[in-house]
UniProtKB/TrEMBL annotation:
PANTHER family: 2-HYDROXY-PALMITIC ACID DIOXYGENASE MPO1 (PTHR28026:SF9), DUF962 DOMAIN PROTEIN (AFU_ORTHOLOGUE AFUA_8G05310) (PTHR28026)
Record-given protein name: DUF962 domain-containing protein
Protein keywords: Membrane, Transmembrane, Transmembrane helix
Residues spanning the membrane: 31-56, 63-81, 87-104
InterPro entries tied to this protein: Mpo1-like
Length: 151
């Protein structure tokens, strides 16, 4: 299994352009939020199962990032609980965020990483979270050095 460093370094190769990075900072959390919303509106048990499996994947890579991801997911789930029920909002956010993602990659001139390996769909949220933590905390040292330094 690849290390977190190896995943982040490989993911960063196709995320160098500042516009693409910005699109990812906005769109990846939006996609993550919309997936939680879609799953929770379909089946809370299914949403919980997917959440647990993702956290196991994250914990095998980095326990601290897995804990931070769990906290972020719980905040998102709480917001979803407060919002009106239904799929419309979440499907709209999902589609719009993917349009933003593909626009960012068009600007970058490189294909999205998940075309190479679907596991990158799980890497992108913690890649963004790692960058956020590096921006908001002087004590947090990102897990890779190429991470979004130009934004």
């Amino acid at each position: 299994m690849k290390t977190i460093q190896e995943w982040f370094d490989e993911y960063s190769e196709s995320h160098q352009d500042p516009t693409n990075k910005l699109m990812h900072w906005v769109c990846v959390p939006t996609i993550y939020f919309s997936i939680i919303g879609i799953l929770a509106n379909f089946s809370v048990l299914l949403a919980a199962l997917v959440f647990i499996l993702a956290l196991i994947f994250y914990a095998r890579l980095d326990v601290v990032l897995a804990i931070a991801m769990a906290a972020l997911t719980l905040v998102m789930a709480w917001l979803i609980f407060l919002l009106p029920k239904g799929f419309g909002l979440y499907i709209s956010l999902f589609v719009l965020a993917w349009i933003g993602q593909f626009y960012g990659h068009k600007v970058e001139g490189k294909k999205p990483s998940f075309f190479k390996d679907l596991q990158f769909l799980l890497i992108s949220p913690i890649w963004c979270l790692d960058a956020y933590l590096g921006k908001v905390s002087a004590k947090w040292e990102t897990r890779h050095k190429t991470q979004m330094t130009s934004i």
